[in-house]
Amino acid sequence: MTTKKVFIWVLASLCTLIISSCNNNVKLDREKLSQVLAKYDGYSRFSEGLAVVSKDGKYGVINKDGKEIVPCIYD
């Protein structure tokens, strides 16, 4: 193998390893999450472990564990 091919192989392997470890950290307990989200009228997709939620026309933020980081008190 040439040096360039070895470098590309190593880089691709590292990227795969990093992506797979990130995916393991982001997994959510779907049953727990669905119970938490049932308390809210609406919610956004999670981004960096946080999601915007709404209740009674007010907005707040929860983390991936369902803990309310910002209470639903904002318009």
Radius of gyration: 19 Å
Q: What profile does the largest beta sheet have?
A: 4 strands, antiparallel
Number of domains: 1
Distance between the termini: 60 Å
Number of helices: 2
Shape: elongated
In the sheet with the most strands, the strands line up as 1-2-3-4
User: Taking all residues together, what is the mean pLDDT?
Assistant: 77
Assign the structural class, choosing from mainly alpha, mainly beta, alpha/beta, alpha+beta, or little secondary structure.
alpha+beta
Find the count of extended strands (DSSP E, 2+ residues): 4
What fraction of residues sit in β-strands?
A: 25-35%
Fraction of residues in helix: 40-55%
Which ranges are low-confidence, i.e. pLDDT below 50, for 5 or more consecutive residues? none
Compressed to H and E, one letter per element, the order equals: HHEEEE
Primary descriptors:
75 residues; single chain; 2 helices; 4-stranded antiparallel β-sheet; 4 strands; alpha+beta
Question: What does this protein structure show overall?
Answer:
The chain is α+β, with helices and mostly antiparallel strands. It has one domain. 43% of the residues lie in helices and 28% in strands. It contains two helices and four strands; from the N terminus they run ααββββ. The chain has a four-stranded antiparallel sheet with strand order 1-2-3-4, with no helix packed on it. Strand 1 and strand 2 form a beta hairpin. The termini are far apart. 5% of the residues are buried. The mean pLDDT is 77.
